[in-house]
Amino acid sequence: MTDTTPRTDPAAERPVLRRYKITHRTTYTYSGPVTSSYGRGYLLPRDTEEQRCVASVVDITPPPADRSTGSDVYGNRDLYFQVSTPHEELVVAAESEIEVYGPDKARLAAAPANAPWELSRPVGTEGAMAQEFVLDLDPPEIGDAVREYAAPSFPPERPLVDAVVDLTTRIHRDFEYKSGSTSVSTRVAEVLEKRSGVCQDFARLAIACLRSRGLAARYVSGYLATQPPPGKERMIGVDATHAWAAVWMPGDRWLAFDPTNDQLVDERYTVVAWGRDYADVPPLRGVIYTEARNSTIAVSVDVAPMEVLAPDQPKC
Fold first, then answer.
1. Is the pLDDT of residue 252 over 50?
2. Which residues pair with 29 in a beta bridge?
3. Do 261 and 131 fall into the same domain?
C-alpha cells in the first residue's frame, strides 16, 4: 500500500541535510495456522518542522482483507489491517523515503531554551495543549526515587537547555545500555533499581524526571541512522527502532534529546510518532485467532543514507 496523502513542506526555506531510505520488516511465525489476524501500528513517518516524508509504502503478506490509514489524536499516521487468510507466517514490511532538515539551531540557541527551566512549565492558554504531557501515567511512574534522581539537574533558575543536557548526560553515565535486560512493560522504578536498560527505558526515565518537575515531556519513536567503524562496510538490517524524549517550551516548541547517546537530537534522527508513553505509539500490536502454541517475531530495520553521514556509531 502506498500512502498518497498530500503533504506540504514544513521547512521549505531550510536546506535538506540528509535523505534516508528506511526499511522496517517484521515477520511473525506461528507453530500452527492463524485463522485471522488484526493489527494496528505506527510505521509511517510523520511530517514535522524537522523532516518531510517524501514517500511511504507498507506491504503485508498474506494480503489483508481490510486495511486503512488514519491519524490519531496526536497527529501520528497509524495503520490498521485484518488478514483473514489462514497463515503460519505474517510479514509487515514498511519502506519510506525521508528528507531531514534537522533542528533549527538558531531557535534552540535563543530563549526560551536558555530561559530558566521554571518558565517552561505549561500554564494558561499557551500551555493548554501541553498540559496533558505533564500528567503521570496510570499506574504512576513518578515516585520519590524519580524526584530524587531528577533534582540535581534542576537547581533554581538554571537554563532549560542546560538542565536537559545535564539530565541526558547523567542518565547516559549512570545507566548501562544492556539489550534484552528489560521489556516494554518494565517500570521506571525497576530501571532505576537495576541501573540498566535500553533506549525506551532511558527515554521513559527522562520523561518521568521532567514531569516530576512540572514540565511537559513526550515519548518519541523513530529511527537513528548509524555508520560502521572506519574501513568497514555498512551492514544491512543492523539498525533498529529508536526512542528518545522531548520537553515542551513556550511558543509550543519542543526540545528533543537522546539519553541513550548523550546528545540533543540532530539530523540523524527521523520521527515516526510521539505520545505520552511507548504504549501510545508501538510499531505494531494486534490480536490473532489460532490454536498454535508457539510463535516467534523477527524485526529488521535498515536506515540507508542517501547522502554521506558523519562517522558516528551511536547506540540503537
1. yes
2. 89, 296
3. yes
